[in-house]
Structure formats: structure tokens, C-alpha cells
């Protein structure tokens, strides 16, 4: 299911989001494919 796929990737998604927020300093940031490279 879609939720199972998300649940299995939630750790790496959080890591990418943490790095993106730290890099930009913005209060909101939309993750893109480039953020995962």
C-alpha cells in the first residue's frame, strides 16, 4: 500500500527534510527530487 511505502521511507525523508531546512533557514520548504540526490 501507499502508506507502507511511505512508512518504509520516512527515516530518509526526515533526514532530507532536516538538511533542507538547515540549509535554507526557511520556515517552509517543498522537497524536490534534487533534495534526495
Structure report:
There is one protein chain. The protein has one helix and no strands. The termini are far apart. It has one domain (2-36). The mean pLDDT is 90. It is an all-alpha fold and 37 residues long.
Write out key terms for the chains shown.
1 helix, single chain, 37 residues, mainly alpha, 0% strand
Summed up:
It is built from one helix and no strands. It has one helix at residues 2-24.
Instruction: Decide which structural class fits the backbone.
Output: mainly alpha
User: So what's the overall shape?
Assistant: elongated
What's the SSE pattern?
H
- Report the total helices: 1
Beta-strand residue fraction: under 5%
Taking all Cα atoms into account, the compactness measure Rg is 11 Å
**Number of DSSP strands?**
0
Question: What characterizes the major β-sheet?
Answer: none
* Average pLDDT: 90
Distance N terminus to C terminus? 25 Å
User: How many domains?
Assistant: 1
Helix content: 55-70%
- Low confidence ranges: none
Q: Layout of SSEs?
A:
Elements lengths: L1 H23 L13
Amino acid at each position: 500500500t501507499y502508506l507502507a511505502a511511505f512508512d518504509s521511507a520516512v527515516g530518509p525523508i526526515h533526514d532530507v527534510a532536516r538538511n533542507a531546512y538547515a540549509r535554507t533557514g526557511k520556515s517552509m520548504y517543498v522537497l524536490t527530487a534534487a533534495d534526495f540526490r
